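Field notebook, page 338. I keep forgetting to write these up properly, so this time I am using the form the group agreed on. The chain and the ligand, AHM, are recorded exactly as supplied. Prediction of the bound pose follows.
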Amino acid sequence: MMVNRNILTLDEFTLQQLRQFPSATGELSSLLRDIGLAAKRVNVEVNKAGLVDILGDAGSVNVQGEDVKKLDIYANNQFMGVLKHGISCAGIGSEELDDFVVFNDEVSNNSKYVVLFDPLDGSGNIDVNVSIGTIFSVYKRVSEKGKPCTKEDFLQPGNRQVAAGYVIYGSSTMLVYATRRGVNGFTLDPSIGEFSLSHPDIQCPAEGKFYSVNHGNFFQYEEPVRRYIDACQRKTKETGGPYTQRYVGSMVADVHRNLIKGGIFMYPGTTDKPKGKLRLLYEANPCAFIVEMAGGSATDGKQRIMDIVPDELHQRTPLFIGSKLMMEELDNYQTGKI
Ligand code: AHM
Ligand code: MG
């Protein structure tokens, strides 16, 4: 059977989009190409993680107080490296780095964007061969061009994102990428080493049957969340169910399933950690942008995730995200309507 080679690659797709806007500078396309390259390099290492001595603790502890695996560091350096050497990015913020990194060279100081990323999310799953991911968020800088970027460029609310995406290193490797023009998914075709458009114009179903939450924390959740989870378990055919509980423990994988099939993902605050575990700037915001652009929604239980004005690079937030109607039902619990 002849392989269909008419499917657009990521580069072809972004170039095609660019052709529709002759005034665009191409910086965003170039940035995406850089990210795609880093993702391919990380993918190669993730695939052989069980084989080589890259697996295991690197012996250091990251700024969140968690053990750093060697692959986290490798991924962080790859993403930072391509962005630094590219022409579109003035600086980055990363889960693995204490502070923002301002590239501060002539080209970077004239670049349009800053990028925030979690280089390898769900890294607790590396050792057991379960999907992990990279999440990224792109902002147009607000500081003066020609000068080094500043903290204000990074601490913008999520509603100012110009693009966001994630890469899943799973049964196949995928890059899902959103701009205000829509959400598109590309699957890595290993035979040509390119991300190829496999999921054009992704729309999140308004309703689904999946709910994803860590049940182990159930008794630490606030009452409205517990009542909603209880309702999920009681769904019948008549009330849109039955629901299925699915929780990978890699947010990218859980959010991706629910984006494609319809569902809701929750990481609520707990009594121990009222702000939950997930980070606003490079986990919640990019996923919120992608899911909203596909027709879903995302909140922290009180307000829209993307309206939160951040004050700190590593700040955490509770996260509820997914299909529109499921989020509305949850909201009814959280606002006391049910
Ligand atoms: P990480 O950034 O340290 O990998 O943590 C984030 C991950 C998410 O991918 C996932 O949804 C969550 O942690 C799972 O946490 P828990 O095991 O507490 O349910
Ligand atoms: Mg993470």
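OBSERVATIONS:
- The longest helix spans residues 27-47.
- The radius of gyration is 20 Å.
FOLLOW-UP: compare against the apo run.
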